[in-house]
Amino acid sequence: MIKxxxxxxxxxxxxxxxxxxxxxxxxxxxxxxEASFELIVPLVVAAMIxxxxxxxxRGYIWRQCVVMxxxxxxxxxxxxxxxxxxxxxxxxxxxxxxxxxFAHIQSLSFSQMDREGTSTLITRMTSDINQVQSGxxxxxxxxxxxxxxxxxxxxxxxxVDVKAALIFVVVIPVLSVIxxxxxxxxxxxxxxxxxxxxxxxxxxxxxxxxxxxxxxFGEEEHETxxxxxxxxxxxxxxxxxxxxxxxxxxxxxxxxxxxxxxxIYVGALQVEAGILxxxxxxxxxxxxxxxxxxxxxxxxxxxxxxxxxxxxxxxQTIFEIPAGMEAGALTGEPAxxxxxxxxxxxxxxxxxxxxxxxxxEFDHVSLRYHKGGEEALTDIHFKAARGATIGVIGGTGxxxxxxxxxxxxxxxxxxxxxxxxxxxxxxxxxxxxxxKIGIVMQKAVLFQGTIRDNLLWxxxxxxxxxxxxALRTAQAEEFVLQKKDGLDERIEQEGRxxxxxxxxxxxxxxxxxxxPEILILDDSASALDYATDAALRKSIREMxxxxxxxIVSQRASSLLHADLIIVLDxxxxxxxxxxxxxxxxxxxxxEIYYSQFERSEEEAAQNAERR
Length: 611
What we know:
single chain; alpha/beta; ABC transporter transmembrane region fold; Rossmann fold; six-stranded mixed sheet; five-stranded mixed sheet; 13 strands
């Protein structure tokens, strides 16, 4: 039954309340104290009616009024105090949960994030956690108070009259069956509602990020139709779940009012027989009314808790995804690597000397993104020596980005191994491995802040001269100098106030500030004109030190200078060698090259590259 209600997963999240044990205890205790004073009120009213009004004793009536006012004031103070502790615990719990969830998401591999989806993760971080926070707040305030009032009222009724109190014994179990039965039915429904909300979130995010494309192709009506269909499905699911939850109040009112009718009937007979006084009957009716009010509150609490449990289960599902990849423990200097036997695919700028530092080796590597899916890369085997420039080219979907993403271990290989500095990347701690590598993704991503803030991501200790040197190498110095505030120029979120080329050049500069052993440019100059692209590659070649450079590009002209060009076709190596070698014996490379250059233009392109 615990599993069916979904509490088992939800309970695992309560570890985030451990720093708020005091608040989690004091909040309900003050609520119970408030409830205790509330249970005394009907007895005060009964005494006022029987003793004060019955005998015409005005002084007694006023004294009882003062007692009721004092009970109300004390109850108010207890309620406010309880609310303070409950809110502090709930907000603190949600904050720690959000931090924990964000940290766990950061530990997931790219493939796991791809599988879960961005919209799902955003929903978990926002609306799901907010719903759980509301649930925790209400539980601390009402979960003990409402049952305490219900059963307390029944016990107090027994102190008034046993026969009349038996009505309470019948009413309370019936109400419990109704409340918990509706809860059991609605928990899975609300879980489905949250799933539908993921779909709406996904479509909304897709439309907002792609609004320019939608308008360019005039697809507004089509996308509006998709959104309407998804929101209608969400509406129908919410309506159905709401109808089930809406049964709570009318059913509880019917049972309570039936109990009141029975109580008044029995009370009248008892008064007529002289067993009960009128004040005692009023006290019993008040106790029944208190039960009604508390059960209405409990019904709303159950609805909120039901949603919170469903959301908590979804959050825990993310926590149950194991960390994307197990990091190695290697943090020191790597040992010298062995010379590769694949001499034909190993190129060095050290006059044949093969140093382990800065080397990258793919040893018969295969990659599969999802279990059961097709291989994205198959049997990739080559070695890049220190200081070499490696070009990667191929058609769309041929696996170019997949190949370079294996070097910083964004994905793990299915077969074979990837070695950096002579060591398998799985032996390194992720921070140690990625400290060696500077990577510029296909999509240039800048963060809100200044140009300086973004560049310092590469090296937080870099001085201004290092920043300007990186900007010069990335061909970004000129446009940064034109900015009014220079390095302190503000950048909007995602670099919305910069052009595509400017964003790409700043992203490259950010990677260069890091002064990495290995630099990966994943089609990161696609927005640059040919002259700027050529100047960029020339300045990268002339950088001090011996940085191993991987350039992924659709442009053959960007790879003419590469020491080794890897041609990919549907995840397999179609050719490997220099530009000249590939132009002679690789059909796939010839097709790519001559689709971009006329044969008569080849010599001109090579001359321009040399210049």
